[in-house]
Amino acid sequence: VSASCPGLVRTRFAGCTDAAFEAAEKVTPIGRLADPEEIADIALFLAVEGTALTGEAIICDGGIYQLGRSR
Questions:
Q1: What is the 3-state secondary structure (H, E, C) of the chain?
Q2: Upper half-sphere CA count for residue 26 (Cβ side, 13 Å)
Q3: For residues 64 and 71, is the Cβ–Cβ distance under 8 A?
Q4: What is the enclosing helix (H) or strand (E) of 35?
């Protein structure tokens, strides 16, 4: 079993204010938050193409985890 591990994604379901989204974008190394479509692409890859992957956690948070920053 593998998983996608998204960080904050700019959606209305996140329950964040625009100011909170903007603050998160400032500390994200790529300078933006992931789009819902990008997270869906990872899930689709795991389901269709990544059938040989096992035990992987694909972190898609714009680089925050790699820098050791708190979410």
A1: CCEEEECCECCHHHCCCHHHHHHHHHHCCCCCCECHHHHHHHHHHHHHHCCCCCCCEEEECCCCCCCCCCC
A2: 6
A3: yes
A4: none
1-25 pLDDT, tens digit per residue, is 899 999 999 898 888 999 999 999 9
Round to whole Å and give the CA distance between 38 and 12.
Answer: 16
Amino acid identity, residue 57? Answer: A
Cα 69 to Cα 66: distance, rounded to the nearest angstrom: 8
Angle at 48 between CA 42 and CA 53, to 5 degrees: 75
pLDDT of residue 9: 93
